[in-house]
Write a structure and sequence with these properties.
This protein has 525 residues and is an all-alpha fold. Helices cover 76% and strands 0% of the residues. It has 22 helices and no strands. 49% of the residues are buried.
Length: 525
Amino acid sequence: MADTVPVGAERASAVDWVAVAAGSLGALMATLDISITNSALPQIQGAVGATGTEGTWISTGYLMSEIVMIPLAAWLTRVFGLRNFLLANAALFMAFSMMCGLSTSLVLMIAGRIGQGFTGGAMIPTAQTIIRTRLPRVQLPIGMTIFGLIVLLGPLLGPVLGGWLAENVSWRWCFFINLPVCAALVTLLIAGLPADRPCWRAFVDADWTGIIGLSIGLSSLTVVLEEGQRLQWFESNEIVAISAIAMLGFVLIGISQFVAPRPIMRLSLLNNPRYASVIAIVVAVGAGIYGISYLVPQFLSLIAGYNAEQSGGIMLLAGLPAFMVMPILPRLLGRVDLRVLVVSGLLCFALSCWIDTGLTAQSAGHDFVWSQLLRGVGQMLAMMPLNQASMASVSKEDSADAAGLYNMARNLGGSMGLAIIGVLIDRRNSFHAEAIRESLTGNSVLGQERLAANAAGWLARSGDLAYAKMQALSQLAAQIDVQAAVMTFAETFYVLAFAMLVCVPLALVLRMPAQPAGSRSASSH
C-alpha cells in the first residue's frame, strides 16, 4: 500500500500509526461487544436467572448507553484530553467487562452492560478522529480502510466468537476476553498519544441543555425501537411514556442549537450537503447491515435448523471480500470517483437482497453463499468511501463532532432497521399464515391429500388412527408456519433491496475534495 502515497507527500510517523492502531483496537473491541452476547444469551439468561423478556435488556442496555456516549465523545475529549479520556475508558471498559463476567444476577449484568456500552461507545468515534487528525490526507484512505473493516467485521465476528466461547469454554469468557485486549490497548495509547491536560473550562461552559436532551432523548428512543414490537408499540403505556421522554429530549436538543455557543450535537454540520448525504446513506446502510445480521441467522435457525455457530459461519462469508480487496482498496479510494464506489456498493447490496427473495423452505446455508459474498462486496464498497467522505467533507477542527454524528447515525439506522423489520415480520407472518389456512378448506383437494398422506405415515408408525390424525394436523400446521415465514423473509429482503436503491440518488450528491498532486499541501487542510 506504500505506493498510494505520492512521492514527496507528507507521511505519517511510526508514532502516528501506533495511535491509529490504538484507536482501531478500541473500536474493534467496542463493535465486537455489541453482538458477542447474542449467541450466548440462553446460557447467560440461565446463569443470572433471567426470563427471555428480561434477557433482551442485556443487549438493549449496551446499545442504549453506547448511542448516548458516541455524540458526547467529542466534548469529553476536549474536557479530559484525548489520551486521558481513552485511557480512562479502556480501564473502565475492562472493569465493567469483569463485572459482567462475574455476574450472578440480572441487575449486575445489566449494570455492567450499560457501563460497557458507555465506555465502549467512546472508542468508536475517537478512532475515526485519530485517523483524521494523525494521518495526512494522502494516507487517509489507508486509515479509513482500517476503520471501515473494523466497523464491518466487528458485528460479524461477535456472534461467532460468542457462540464458540459459550459452547466450548464458558459464556463468562465473552467478557473476560476483553482483559488482555484492554491491556494491549492501554499500552498502545500510552505509546501512541501525547500527554495532554484537561480543560475544565470546557466542562463548566458545556451545552448542558443539549447534554441532558441527548442523554434522555437517544436512550429513550433506543428503548422504544428495541422494545416497541414486543410491547405492541403505543398500545403499551410504558412505550407511550418513554416516547414522550424521547420527544422532550429532542426538543431540548433543538433548543440547544440556538442558545448554546457550541451545541453538544452539531446539527449545523448537516447544512453541508456533502456531509448530509453521507449521513442519510449511512442510516440506510446501517439499517441494512443490522437487518441482515438479524434476518439471515433467523432464517437459518427457524427454517434450516442451524445452531448459532453454524449460522455464524455463513455470516462470516460476508467478511471474506473485505480481506481479499483490502490491499487494493486504499488505491481505489484515492483514484476512483467516490460516487462510483458508493453506487456500486449500494447496487451490490440491493442485488444480494434480491437474490435471497428466492429462498424456499428447503433452503440451507449453501443457498446464502453467493448472496453473502456479494453483500460483503456491497457493504465494503459503500461503507469504506462513506467513512472517508464523512471526514473529508469537514475540517479537522470539526472532525470529532462529525465522527460522533456519523457513528450515531449508523447505530440509530441499525436500531430503526431492526424495529421496522420486527414489525414487518410479525404482521406479515400472521397475514400469510392466515391466508394459507383460509385456502386449506375442507374442499381443498391438495390439502386433503397432504393430510391423508401424513396421517398414513403416522398410522404406519404408531398403529393408532386418532393419534395419527392429530399428528398429521400438527405437522400440517407446522408446515403452514414455515411457508408463511419463508414468504415473510422474502418480502423483508425485498424491502431492504428497495431501501438500498432509494439511496442511489443521494450517492450522486457526494463529492470528494480535490487532492493536490502529491505535495505536502495534500495534508495541510
